[in-house]
Write a structure and sequence with these properties.
Strand content: 15-25%
CATH architecture: 3-Layer(aba) Sandwich
Helix content: 40-55%
Shape: globular
Number of domains: 1
Structural class: alpha/beta
CATH topology: Rossmann fold
Distance between the termini: 40 Å
CATH superfamily: Vaccinia Virus protein VP39
Number of strands: 9
Order of helices and strands: HHHEHEHEEHEHHEEHEHHE
Oligomer: single chain
């Protein structure tokens, strides 16, 4: 199964599994809060892997000019529906990033919530992103890291040791019979970009999937969320989480 086919499947459940999940809502709102600090009205942005258009309401609120792409036909269909619902004028295109030809230079390139994790090898992707940025442009990458405490604990207790080993030490995981994703950290982006900021998301929280599946973890997540919200800005990125927010700039 290709990653495109996989995200066609995810399209039907993404809204419920992430956008209507308290852990997912927290993570997305935190990312939006960080991006709002420096994005300015009229900025031209490229949203790689836009999914069902979950960030469109945020882009519209800042009056951004948006070019959104996704390889999944079903995700693009949902993104187009969301743009119409919001009366949001965005250029929305079905394409793999690797295959897409771009005519513009962007103020920001955004790869939100695990989009970067489907790419391997990473070097040609980062090189292409760098070529698309204006001189003062920025990159937002929200990456799944190798370490997630709650998920690691679940895998340890349920004897999913091979999956745990692959994630922690091989930095990859099988998400279908023939499809892998890859876990990245700050050091993987540094050959091409300056790291301006990094914020772990969900370090002390269950994943959105765990939050939905386990009543006990749901209660723990509700209790820990204010603590997570306070401390996340002070945590080093190596502590991991469900995702890590990276703000990157061009090398000088």
């Amino acid at each position: 199964m290709s990653t495109t086919s996989l995200f066609d499947i995810y399209a039907g459940v993404y809204e419920k599994k992430f956008n209507q999940n308290r852990m997912g809502i927290y993570q997305r709102s935190r990312v939006h809060r960080e991006m709002a600090k420096w994005l300015t009205p009229g900025s031209l942005i490229l949203d790689i892997g836009c999914g069902p258009g979950s960030d469109f309401h945020f882009y519209k609120s800042l009056n951004l000019s948006v070019h959104a792409i996704d390889s999944s036909e079903k995700m693009i269909r949902l993104a187009q529906q969301e743009a119409r619902r919001l009366n949001f004028n965005a250029r929305i295109e079905q394409s793999r990033f690797q295959d897409c030809t771009f005519r513009d230079k962007y103020d920001a390139v955004i790869l939100n919530f695990g989009v970067i994790n489907v790419f391997h090898p990473l070097d040609p992707v980062l090189e292409k992103i760098d070529s698309l940025l204006k001189a003062d442009g920025k990159v937002v990458i929200v990456s799944m890291p190798p370490v997630q405490l709650f998920l690691s604990g679940e895998w340890l207790l349920t004897f999913q040791w091979r999956a745990l080993y692959r994630r922690l030490f091989l930095k990859k995981a099988m998400v279908s019979e023939d499809t892998e994703i890859f876990y990245y950290r700050c050091k993987d982006f540094q050959p091409y970009f300056r790291v301006l900021d990094s914020i772990p998301l969900g370090t002390f929280l269950p994943t959105p999937d765990q939050y939905a599946r386990h009543p006990l973890l749901r209660k723990m997540g509700d209790f820990l969320l204010p603590i997570e919200h306070f401390f996340s800005s002070f945590l080093p990125e190596w502590m991991g989480g469900d995702h890590v927010f990276y703000l990157l700039g061009k090398k000088i």
